[in-house]
């Protein structure tokens, strides 16, 4: 079975791990948002690619969901003595990944090639594919002006009300052959419970991507990241409202209706089922919170089987 997951970072990697563990023999490709990428001290950081890779390699920090378990921060402390403002926490071992990626990119590799090298080195058997090789950068407009995504999300702890969102550079980016081929060959396409605006949004915004996704609609399901009108984590609700959508599972259905056949919603959102059906999206109700491996595997199986129900 060929499974493709569209994914952001911490939220989406829970379902990525569920699919990876529950379907070990599947041909599994994960298309990951790269519009959160940033440069710090000349290093190319790809937070969502690293979060998914570390999670599948069983290396991720279980407390934060990002970074490496048991990492230390000696380099960051030394950098502080040179006046570096360390608001973006880069662990010592995590730095090895950013150094490697930056070196591979400077030696002429594409982001897809460099990612493949890192993923294989860590023993991960899935294909982890950046959504594109070109630079795309999400920015969020607040009352105080436009902020780079990580400035909005990490530095200012998404405390500002978002007014608008852009993905700079997306119009001149392109869907690469590995991403296109994986989607066109997939038996199941699953949209992870990631932030619909800043994680799945940049993937949807790639020129030609919606046409590809729509051509796979009968095989595509999404898992709602909004439960009981609240984002499972992060500012997804506020960001959805900034785009004119309701912060609810029905709002998620409205955003994805043109390319998903079914939406998996939480039991807490049962009452929204008929509204979702009215958008020609089949609601499938289950417990979607994934605190442990057993629940991640159960939601993964539920998602894969949802297209057959
Ligand atoms: N998230 C934080 O909230 N604070 C951090 O200091 C931070 C550092 C960081 C370093 C490497 C990495 O791969 C991810 C990191 N993240 C951090 C997570 C990350 O930036 C966000 O969760 C995503 O970009 C949103 O998907």
Description:
With 309 residues, the chain is of the alpha/beta class. Helices cover 39% and strands 19% of the residues. The protein has helices at 10-22, 47-56, 74-81, 92-106, 111-121, 149-155, 177-185, 200-204, 209-215, 236-242, 249-256, 273-277, 293-306, and strands at 2-7, 27-32, 38-40, 43-45, 127-130, 137-142, 145-148, 164-168, 188-191, 220-223, 226-227, 230-231, 262-266, 282-286. A 7-stranded parallel sheet has the order 5-2-1-9-10-13-14, with helices on both faces. A 3-stranded antiparallel sheet has the order 7-6-8. The longest helix has 15 residues, at 92-106. The chain starts with a strand and ends with a helix. The mean pLDDT is 97. Residues 8-10, 36, 47-48, 50-51, 66-67, 88-90, 94, 150, 153-154 line the site of ligand FO1.
